[in-house]
TrEMBL record:
EC number(s) from the headed UniProt entry: 2.4.1.17
Name the record gives this protein: UDP-glucuronosyltransferase
Subcellular location(s) per record: Membrane
Keywords on record: Glycosyltransferase, Membrane, Signal, Transferase, Transmembrane, Transmembrane helix
Phylogenetic lineage: Eukaryota, Metazoa, Ecdysozoa, Arthropoda, Hexapoda
Glycosyltransferase is among the record's keywords: yes
Range of residues in the leader sequence: 1-21
Main subcellular location: membrane
Species this chain originates from: Xenopsylla cheopis
Keyword flag Mitochondrion: no
Family, similarity comment: Belongs to the UDP-glycosyltransferase family.
Length: 521
């Protein structure tokens, strides 16, 4: 009897904790590790909470997890991990990121993946899902599965949402106060910056529509002939989860259906380090400089003179330098100082949590720099492409980083390193910014889980939607009302003008008649 009561109590507790278990489909077509990492944290946590999770993506789990199933896309696209060279970056540039979104991550991605056997089988599947999670970073193509399975869906953004993502939940994007990440403008913009930001918003919004969404529509209908307009489908999202947080990425107008979960990939507590790394860090009495350009960019492919300048600066420091790099990619004959240790892969989040880490030399990727902010480590930023310039400039304005471009490395890198190591203000400010970033009622992952399950419990949560969801863009911005008011005012002025003109003419006619009569007499 006691055992029976105990079992019932456990079942009741689990039911209260997890609620109704749902079937969840995750579709993540991008093969960039930085796009996958935030989503991975949420999907795995949902599986641990008892939901049945099926994931379509390029990074299948190496070890099984209960309630978690992979539909692997690994090998269907060229590998995009640790293979972005500096020469590729220089060809693309910062604004070139928009064209990458519309091509490699847009209609081209749609075309390459939608006809794969994995996604063809999914298109023919009779499974039923309670929720779909997906990222529409470069294309709305995969929203076709939302239409097929007739399930509510949540949009995932690995950074501050682009305009077309914000539109999914009718979130206002004001060019006057919301600088686009590709511009790297500050929150408080002057006239010319606001003008440039406005034009960039227009360019990217319509560029995405005509260069990605329209061709993706044609490709999607090859597999799903009855799929509705992708633009309309994109505006049916129940929720937008973005890897941003106002204390770090800036305060902006929002709506209930937009939830910020910046730092969702960061575990609250650091994991134990491998013994060899732990020993290195513990024995570095003068501190450690941690150097990493993330999961994509190969820092060892920088120009030889830049590498030599950095290594020379490191050689004159008493600190240990731990560098995520593959020595096989170094230029021939490059001399690496004894205090510089290189490894192909390093547990970054856990390393940054070590008290001996003094500075983080980074390319400015959002995930890595959020880890730096979380652990209150000052940063020396060398931005390469995409949002990295905007991220580093943001941290410079907040007083937790110094920026040196690749072209400035030979002249400024060593001075910048000395400044950030010797000036305690950077560390003190980093601690304040870190506290603001971590001061929340729930962890980012707990917040994401709550709102995901909220959408499940409320069958898509239509109560989150604003009335603007059912209006066209020109109606949202009142262009039709403004045009009507202008037309009415102009019509009124025209009537007044014509009336005055007629009255003026009528007043002049008798005078002319009288003058004629006088002449006749």
């Amino acid at each position: 009897m006691i055992r029976y009561v105990l079992v019932l109590s456990i079942v009741s507790l689990l039911s209260t904790q997890y609620g109704e278990c749902a079937k969840i489909l995750g579709i993540f077509p991008l093969n960039g590790h930085s796009h996958w990492t935030p989503n991975k944290a949420l999907l795995e946590e949902l599986a641990k909470r008892g939901h049945e999770v099926t994931v379509v993506g390029h990074f299948p789990r190496k070890t099984p997890l209960a309630n978690y199933k992979d539909i692997s896309l690994a090998g269907t696209l060229p590998d995009f991990v640790n293979n972005v060279s500096y020469s590729f970056v220089t060809q693309m540039g910062f604004m070139g990121g928009a064209f990458v979104i519309w091509s490699m991550a847009g209609a081209e991605l749609c075309k390459n993946l939608l006809h794969t056997p994995q996604l063809q089988d999914l298109a023919k599947s009779n499974e039923k899902y309670d929720l779909i999670l997906t990222e529409t970073f470069g294309t709305d193509c995969f929203l076709s599965y939302v239409h097929k399975f007739k399930a509510p869906w949540i949009s995932m953004s690995c950074a501050i949402p682009f305009d077309w993502m914000a539109e999914q939940v009718d979130m206002p994007v004001l060019p006057s106060t919301s600088p686009l990440m590709l511009t790297s403008y500050p929150d408080q913009m002057n006239f010319w910056e606001r003008t440039g930001n406005f034009l960039t918003h227009i360019f990217t919004f319509f560029g995405y529509h005509y260069m990605s969404r329209v061709p993706s529509q044609k490709i999607a209908r090859e597999v799903f002939p009855e799929v509705p307009d992708l633009h309309d489908l994109s505006r049916s999202a129940s929720l937008l989860l973005s890897n941003s947080y106002f204390s770090l990425t800036g305060s902006k107008p929002s709506v209930p259906a937009h939830v910020e979960v910046g730092g969702i990939h960061i575990s609250p507590e650091a994991s134990p380090l491998p013994q060899d790394i732990q020993k290195l860090l513990d024995n570095a009495k003068q501190g450690v400089i941690y150097f990493s350009f993330g999961s994509m960019v190969q820092s060892e492919t920088l120009p030889r003179k830049s590498l030599e300048a950095m290594l020379a600066a490191f050689s004159r420091r008493p600190q240990l330098v731990l560098w995520k790099a593959n020595p096989k990619n170094f230029p021939p004959g490059l001399v690496v100082p004894k205090n510089v240790i290189t490894q192909k892969w390093l547990p970054q989040r856990d390393i940054l949590a070590h008290p001996n880490i003094k500075v983080f030399v980074t390319h400015g990727g959002l995930l890595g720099t959020m880890e730096g902010v979380h652990t209150a480590v000052p940063m020396l930023g060398v931005p390469m492409f995409g949002d990295q310039l905007a991220n580093i400039k943001n941290y410079v304005r907040r007083g937790i980083a110094i920026m040196v471009t690749v072209q400035e490395i030979e002249d400024k890198f060593e001075k910048a390193l000395e400044e950030i190591m010797s000036n305690k203000t950077y560390k003190e400010t980093a601690m304040k910014v870190s506290q603001q970033f971590r001061d929340r009622p729930q962890t980012p992952l707990e917040t994401a889980v709550f709102w995901t399950e909220y959408v499940i419990r409320h069958k898509g949560a239509p109560q989150l939607r604003t009335p603007g969801r059912y209006l066209q863009w020109y109606q949202i911005w009142l262009f039709d009302v403004i045009a009507f008011v202008i037309a009415v005012v102009l019509s009124f002025l025209l009537v007044v003008y014509c009336s005055c003109k007629m009255m003026f003419r009528s007043c002049r006619k008798p005078a002319k008649t009288k003058d004629v009569k006088k002449k006749r007499n």
